[in-house]
Every structure is written in structure tokens, then in C-alpha cells.
Task: structure prediction
Amino acid sequence: MNIKDVLESRFGHKEHIHFNDVEIDCGSIRAIMINEVVPVDPAQDFYGSSGEQYLSTTISLFQKAGLTAETVQDILNMGVYLTNAVKTPKTGYAIEKERFDESLPYLEQELSLFPNLQVIMLMGDVAKKMFNQIARKTVKRNPIPSGATYKLRSTAFYYNNIRVIPSYIMTGGNILIEKSKVAMAAEDIASMAEIIQ
Result:
């Protein structure tokens, strides 16, 4: 199944919305990692023609977690799907509320495509906030409470028997500067890999 084709058939094509143009067996996916926002250039996204901007730090985190990953296909072969919460690029430092609200139904539909999920990783505060909004529709509460990620990550959270792991953003050059966040994100990825193996 091509994720972009499925989502565009449901919502229609909109030039400013970026979906993952990737063909995958949704039944083989056991974990989803939700990053914060798509890059300005779709070629730099996880499944873009280059992928360099987003994949370089993501692959590095997988390797620090002790996993063998050189390409996005290696990550998919582990049963892990990478996506972004906000489907339109941000234009400033912060993500505008309109972009957040516009992307919410797309993310919700995208998550529903994977019947065998065991883990959802929320890579950053935007992913956590958007996932909580989606989950509140069915469980009437936030699966992930407010609080600092470094404190939250030591607690096991669940949503409909799916383990939900709050962690740190996995893309962009800034993550590599903060060594403690890199170490914690790698630990979280290792925990995710243990659950889905």
C-alpha cells in the first residue's frame, strides 16, 4: 500500500500537504515513530529522494541504540514506520496552530492504517500533543500526561494495549548538540526494539 495514495484518496490532493510517498505492507509495521513536522523540501523527508536532512540523525539514533540501520528501508524492515505529526512545513520558529489543526485528521487516518501496532513513539512535544488529541476522542483522557520528557519516559504508558513512549525529537542538527537527549532517545529506541522483536 502506498501511504500517500491512500491518504490522498481519503482527503484529496493538496499541494501544501506532504504525505509519505512510500509503498509498505502496513501489516508488517509494529512500531510508529512520530516526528514533529515535515521539512520544507519533501526530498529531505524520511522517504524523500534524498532523505539526508531527516535520515542522518534518525539513522544515527538507531545505531546508538545498537540497531543495524543504514537506510530507511532497514528501519522499515525492522517493522518501524517513520512519519511526521504536522504535514505542512513550519514557516517560523514555532508551528502555527492552524497547521497543527489542519494536520490532525491526516495523522489520525495515517495511524489507523496499521493494524498490528505494539509501540507508538512520540518524538517531541508536538507529536505528544497531537497524539493526545487523537487519543482523547476514544479514551477521553490524555494517555501521556503533561510534564518534562525526561521524567515521563521512565513510566510505561498505554493506549488501547499499545505502548506509548514519549521521547525527544529525532531530526535536525540541534539534537546532536544535546548529548543527554541523544542518549535518552537512543535508549527509548532500544526499548521500542525490544518490545517489537
Notes: Residues 33 and 189 are 9 Å apart (CA to CA). The radius of gyration is 15 Å. The chain has a mean pLDDT of 91.
